[in-house]
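Troubleshooting log. The previous structure file for this entry was overwritten by mistake, so regenerating from the original sequence record. Sequence copied from the archived sheet and checked twice against the printout by T.R.
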Amino acid sequence: MKNNKRKFIPLIAALMAVLLVACGPSDEKLAEAEEARSLLAQAKQTAEDTYLDVSDTTQRSILDSLSDKEAEIEQLDFTKMNDKKIDEVLPTITELTESYQNIGKELSGVLTSETQIKEEKAKHKGLEVYFINKTGMNLSKIVLHDISANTYSDNFIGDGVTLQSGYTLMGVTLDIYSDSSEWEFVITDDAGTEYNLSCESLKGEDLKGASIVLNYDSTAATGEATLGGYFPEPEPEPTEATEAGTEAESADAAEGASTDAATESTSE
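Regenerated output below.
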């Protein structure tokens, strides 16, 4: 009997070893599972960090859904799973990792686009100036032509408004692009004729609040826009024609008042 007992001891030990192997994963499979989970965590972190850097929020719901699935993977205890069970789980981990990587690429593209837009926007600065019309013409339009960028501004005067000769237009803000180096102003008189006025450089913070004097030589058919002082010039004195018109308007107003008074007396 003793001999039989001695024979059973190695057999029991072998069976125990088999049971232990069956209940837990091999070292290689456990390492594979942990590495897969680590890659998943990295992919998630990268995607989430990139998302925080963009203003586009359309991917938030997708990230939340992936996060719920990733949390389930984090809760798995691979040490209590056998190799077969781990093999069943690994494809899910790989698929989830790829989903995070794909959305991470999309977010990286969005980030690149948004960064370029921000950088381009930062190149545009508003320059506050005012115009002095010394062209000898009444103007219906003043437009800034950025020759370097080949862009045109809106009409600074405004539709249906005329800037008379000798008058000043206040409250103007020019959009100056830092990469540009050449500008001109395109003016239009009240008859609809356009003129191009060459312009000095509009770069520099020291130009803020400066005047831009619009000049045109009809004899030479050339014009220029020059940077002037920082104080508006006084409006021109009324001409004789203007004074005569004003007197006539006053006379008409007085006559109208007299007529109204006479009418009221008659009514009484």
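The beta strands are 124-134, 139-146, 151-152, 168-177, 183-189, 194-199, 211-217, 222-227. Archived copy saved in two places this time.
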